[in-house]
Amino acid sequence: MRRKLVKKIKRFLPLIIIFIIAILSLVISNVFIKESTEFRSKAAAPGPTRYLDEVFNFVKITRGIAYGQALDDNNQMQPLTLKLFQPSGDSETQRPAIVWLHGGGFTGGSPVEAYTVGFAKRGYVAAAINYRLVDLATRNAQLQGFQENPSILPPFLVNAQHDALAAVRWFRANASEYKIDPDRIIVGGSSAGAFAALYSAYNYEDAGNSGNPGYSSTVSAVINSMGGMIAPEIWIKANDPPAGIFIGDLDPFLQYALDTKAVLEQLSIPVTMPGFGNVSHVLKGDKLNPFIARFLYDQLFLNAPFPSTSPQPLPSPQYSQEDIESSCHLIDKYTNLETYTGTAKEKQKLQRLINLASKTGLLSRVDITNVDQLLEFYNTYCKPTTSPPPLSFPTPTPQPTTTSPLPTTSPQPLPSPQYSQEDIEFSCHLINKYTNLETYTGTAKEKQKLQRLINFATKTGRNKVNITNVDQLLEFYNTYCN
Q1: C-alpha distances in angstroms, 9 versus 5, 19, 141?
Q2: Separation CA 286–CA 184 (nearest Å)
Q3: What values do phi and psi take at 240, rounded to 5?
Q4: pLDDT tens-digit series, residues 110-138
Q5: How many other CB atoms are found less than 10 A from the CB of residue 443?
Q6: Which of 58, 288, 355, 373 is placed for a possible disulfide with 314 were both Cys, Cβ 3.0 to 4.6 Å?
């Protein structure tokens, strides 16, 4: 019996071996095909986009760079320094640059990295600058005069504006060393820094003397994080740079931001203002950077190459008034066709602009593809024949007294020098999250609960403003958070 079984096994052994080999081959083949497909899928997937996404893992930070000097409030010469953020290992030679101003109510604060590190990881060169500050009493006294006559800026705001523009000029003066594109310099800031950034962008004629004379103080765009302008109709002019406005719906500065947006829109200046829901004065750089990056990416042609196009006849559709106004605004903003002489260099520059605008869809409404079409469109629709009528602006909506961000008596949302803006925002966020002081009645049970919260915040290192009892908590809340 055993001999017969052995004979049968020997007889079918080659077939068994062939069957096993076939099975193994099929398994290996399927694994290889799967891995190859996954590899091709990964290789074909689009990668991150420079200026829009974080494409650098590391940032080179250089501290204490002097960019100017100016007299402070005590008539003493104050050195002005900046902290520079650059993407590590970057080979690009024409990089856009951002000048960033911190918050602090013009009485405190210091350069923070929440915004600037994110910018550098996206490929920008960013500078977080120190600028001149004043004490609380001086600021409030100067602020009162500004509220009475908003056509005259208070000295503390003028100083911040002059210092910011000195940093803009510093970038241009050192463009070669730091590989900066001098035509793509942005100014921005948060809270008080946002106010200063807006006036710097739209009142650049008052450049000051904080440093680096002989260079232009103009910027390509302005970023307003949690700020706005008082009487923006006085300062913003046609063809001024676009603005990105990023502010919460419950921010005490919201009305100033809305007034600024209204004037920009009336002048056909590009403006972005996404909503942030029921958010007060607590937006942070890591939350806002993707929105800011999208705004800059769209406005500064950062996504456009320089392709060549074949000349084609100007199409003859009937354009809507909106199409004409939008296209004429772009042409007036980025060209000076009134002085055009037709040189090869001018034509080349205009063609690059057309290519950029076409690539980004900005001129898609009128289908301009070459210089001859651009000139014909301009002469037909955009060239002024008479002086334009003066612009009229609506009276800005007054800010309600209960949420006025610019008080003259108590430092309501504007911080005291003893606290940084970041500490105030963090503390108000915790108070609003874990308490409900709007319904506080002062019962023993409520006081006990609040004291436990204070003790817990202190033990966990979250008590940034050194509150030790309930009375201090209530005073802080009514002064800064309510």
Answers
A1: 6, 14, 106
A2: 23
A3: -70, 165
A4: 777 879 999 999 999 999 999 999 999 99
A5: 9
A6: 373
